[in-house]
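I'll show an entry:

:::
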Amino acid sequence: MIKILLDTNLLIYREDHSIIDDKVLELTKVLYDSNKYKIVIHPMTMEDISHIKDSKERDIFYSKVKIYEAIERPPKATDNFNNLVGCSKLPNDLIDNNLLYAVYKDCVSYLITNDIKLRNKAKKININDRVLSIEEAINLFKPIEEKETRTPAFINHEYLYNIELEDNFFDSLKADYKGFENWYKKKSREGGKAYITRYPNNKIGSFLMLKVETENEDYSSFKEPFKKDIRLKVATFKVANTGNKIGESYIKIIVEEALKNKVNEIYVTIFEKQEALINLLSEYGFVQKTTKMTERADGSLEKELVFVKSMNDNTYPNFDWSNRNTFIVPIQQRYHEMLFPESEISTQLSLEDLKGVNTYANAIKKAYICKAQTQQIKPGDILLFYASENKRSITTIGIVDNVFSQFTTPEDLYAMAIKRTVYSLEEIKANFKSNSKLILFKYYKTLKEPITYNSLIENQLLKNVPISIVKVDSNLAKKMINI
């Protein structure tokens, strides 16, 4: 949880009897309606409030400010610090310096103030990016709050209190973890949410719950405790409805949440019996680091493996451009919408999309079928997918897993691409040739800003409209994409 310190004057302004300014109201809504932020006060705020002359007003402010948690034993601004930022003999100036020192010493993540003098002091010690005006705070925090991780249509991000704990889906979790029901109810009261899918009969088919942990998290139960860091915990990950690539969809969600919350690591604890989940996570960069003992409902202890994924490694969604060929791959707009729904602002959903039947959209692993003659593509190469027709832009990056050609029958080709291709067996039969090429690849990224055809021409990455796969300069492509 991100700790945010409010300047005393801003705090008083918010809590007095005046009509609240629109900007303060907007900031209040962003911070107080979220479970990502925690408003804290500095103990010296009480001293600042003591300077209010009207005793009745002073008592009112005291009573209101007590609802906020105070920073426990914050370090006191040193003489060197006061000399560096400047400090007069006025009591308010010393209080301001101590608020600033709390940011400098990482007691909190941010300080919000409209005091220009205080923000100028922050520039002297290079923490002005963490000492924000109201306007800056709104611009920083509001987009984070408003950006809901995009999910396939059949996956819902639901409040726990709207998910039936009595569903037999949870039976194994109740058996594996002592106190699971109490933990679930506690998280529900705290406003917790989970990603879920349901069967046609409304029974739960899968469940994913995530938690962002701060540097204060206790890892003493681990055989080798983690160092302090900001992490994303995969609190619960279970898929009963297998076969629809829901697990891969959840991997995408986990990684997107990690990127959105700017964490350094993701971790999950897994029982050794959960082989399918271990294999899935291992494929996307999760590595076992340590173990812990977990008490089951019957009182017995069972070992859990602790798997960790670094967000700075060269596994999904990161990759290294060096020693790889890069190809621009044209794809028709209708197939682009089906294969890469992440890059579409709005797409007409089919009944199959809503049911999760279109597994090629859910999967990280996808298939591209073509008649391209190139023999240069090999595992590890970079694919830049170019949406033709309306978009005329590169939108998506994929990394090659494998390449196959020389199929005897269309059925052979379809069997290798099934559940990863947008093409039906009938479409493959209609267009099949023995030299048809099947490229299996992993979806890696959707570009925030698609690279238009005109830009590709101007920067000489392309000479004309791509009608088949084109090999391009990797260094120039990397420079243009700039990720």
Observations:
- The domain at 2-146 is CATH 3.40.50.1010 (Rossmann fold).
- The first helix runs from residue 8 to 15.
- The chain has three domains: 2-146, 156-310, 326-481.
- The chain is about 35% helix and 25% strand.
